[in-house]
């Protein structure tokens, strides 16, 4: 089991604007070690700084897709859509949470897997930059492979910390997948969009329905203040604050978690040995501890869903990590959209012995609700919401779609189906709703991305997911 804590620190520090000059060069180094001649040039050779890249003389892109593990589990959106979203210390807050995984893929091809298993899907194959058209730059090399941010959504799979007995069927699946939701969120480096001239959210989306029937649903983007309190108890859950070496626990249980009373003094695990003790998930509990804190839920499962009691009680919080590359766990025929199911889980994710060989699949950042690392729990929900209904055969002009590209070349075709990409350009000012009284664009410190209304699994594969700054 090998963790590279120095590398981890570098990745974490990427959230800090002051470190970004340092980071851009390190980023190249870091990922090129893992085989990244294929990067879609994330700020690399142009000499640009601050996590952005000049794309025209007066335009630059701020990357939202890197680093991929900066995206963490989202708090429940308090939009009125999801019941009890504003309740505190109440399990009902999470009753509709399903499973989501965010990960990034470039050219990486794990050893030990046949091409047919790894690449024979639009949602795991290599994407060449030519599929998305030329990237206009003011200089520097263009790399041939696009590093995509992939968001896999599983509306039938029970999300972590979802204790809704009535919402789980006798097979352990969620009973009303179209009502489920799940999402991810991240802090932003530039929060004053007026001052920095950020005017657009831009991304390419691979048609999500190339390998499945119609499964319409909705993608929502939130910009502004979204709550960091994922386990909504008014307290910061942070793995690096959990007890080590048998120290008496200076903390207490909420309805959701064991939380420390100490100030956070680190966002990295100190050593591999401390990681082994602290990598317990947002609830701060191992599976035995979960059985105690969530005993009421387990008892109800035993009484009302006895057939799945063993399954559920093995991981009561449903937060245990499994590598997509774990050949003991996944049957050989499991496809990659299935294999990522447990990738974003927070218990045991930092201890993955396979992480070193998995390049962009790193998941070892400690889990912590304080994602902007300011020592405070941001609980306000005040944000602009952008609503993007997704269905088959969308057209230019619909849903902020500005361009459609179909690529019939061999590398972009799977089982006779060519790639179809939609380019979205969403003006920041063209929001669908403003929640929590927000009325200006000068304080937008977070982004949340969530999905709902889908009835079955969907993977959103996004290329060049950027904020566009026009100077
Ligand atoms: Ca909390
Ligand atoms: Ca667990
Ligand atoms: Ca963890
Ligand atoms: Ca914070």
Any overview of this molecule?
The protein has helices at residues 5-13, 20-33, 115-118, 193-196, 272-278, 287-293, 295-304, 309-313, 336-339, and strands at residues 52-56, 59-63, 72-73, 98-105, 148-158, 181-187, 198-206, 217-225, 251-253, 258-260, 382-390, 401-407, 413-414, 417-427, 433-435, 446-452, 458-470. The chain is of the alpha+beta class and 471 residues long. The protein has one domain (5-470). Strands 1, 2, 4, 5, 7, 12, 13, 14 and 17 form a 9-stranded antiparallel sheet that branches. Strands 3-6-16-8-11-15 form a 6-stranded antiparallel sheet, with no helix packed on it. A two-stranded antiparallel sheet has the order 9-10. Helix 1 (5-13) crosses helix 2. The longest helix is centred in the first third of the chain and has 14 residues, at 20-33. Mean pLDDT is 84; it is low at 1-50. Bound molecules: calcium ion (4 copies). One calcium ion binds at residues 228, 370, 372, 374, 376-378.
């Amino acid at each position: 089991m090998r963790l590279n804590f120095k590398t981890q620190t570098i990745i974490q520090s990427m959230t800090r604007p002051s470190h970004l000059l340092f980071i851009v060069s390190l980023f190249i180094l870091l990922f090129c070690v893992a085989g990244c001649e294929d990067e879609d040039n994330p700020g690399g050779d142009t000499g640009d700084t601050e996590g952005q890249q000049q794309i025209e003389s007066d335009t630059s892109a701020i990357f939202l897709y890197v680093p991929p593990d900066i995206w963490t589990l989202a708090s429940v959106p308090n939009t009125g859509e999801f019941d009890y979203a504003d309740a505190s210390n109440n399990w009902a807050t999470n009753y509709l949470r399903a499973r989501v995984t965010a990960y990034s893929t470039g050219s990486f091809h794990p050893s030990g897997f046949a091409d047919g298993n790894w690449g024979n899907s639009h949602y795991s194959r290599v994407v060449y930059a030519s599929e998305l058209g030329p990237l206009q730059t003011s200089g520097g090399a263009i790399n041939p492979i696009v590093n995509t941010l992939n968001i896999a959504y599983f509306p039938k799979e029970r999300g972590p910390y979802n204790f809704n007995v009535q919402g789980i069927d006798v097979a352990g699946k969620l009973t009303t997948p179209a009502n489920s939701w799940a999402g991810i969120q991240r802090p932003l480096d530039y929060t004053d969009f007026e001052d920095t001239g950020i005017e657009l959210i831009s991304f390419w989306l691979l048609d999500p329905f190339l390998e499945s029937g119609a499964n319409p649903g909705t993608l929502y983007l939130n910009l502004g203040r979204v709550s960091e309190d994922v386990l909504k108890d008014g307290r910061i859950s942070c793995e690096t604050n959990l007890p080590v070496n048998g120290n008496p626990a200076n903390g207490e249980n909420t309805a959701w978690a064991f939380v420390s009373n100490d100030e956070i003094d680190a966002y990295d695990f100190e050593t591999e040995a401390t990681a082994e003790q602290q990598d317990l998930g947002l609830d701060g509990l191992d599976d035995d501890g979960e059985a105690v804190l969530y005993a009421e839920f387990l008892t109800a499962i035993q009484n009302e869903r006895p057939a799945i009691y063993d399954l559920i009680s093995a991981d009561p919080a449903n937060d245990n990590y499994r590598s997509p590359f774990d050949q003991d766990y996944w049957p050989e025929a499991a496809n990659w959209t299935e294999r990522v199911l447990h990738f974003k889980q927070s218990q045991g994710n930092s201890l993955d012995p396979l992480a070193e060989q998995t390049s962009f699949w790193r998941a070892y950042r400690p889990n912590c609700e304080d994602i902007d690392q300011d020592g405070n729990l941001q609980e306000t929900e005040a944000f602009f919401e952008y609503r993007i209904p997704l269905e088959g055969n969308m057209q230019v002009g619909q849903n902020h779609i500005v361009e459609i590209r179909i690529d019939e070349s061999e590398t972009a075709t799977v089982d006779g189906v060519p790639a179809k990409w939609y380019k979205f350009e969403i003006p920041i000012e063209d929001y669908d709703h403003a929640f929590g009284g927000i009325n200006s664009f000068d304080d937008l410190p977070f982004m949340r991305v969530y999905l709902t209304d889908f009835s079955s699994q969907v993977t959103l594969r996004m290329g060049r997911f950027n904020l566009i700054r026009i100077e």
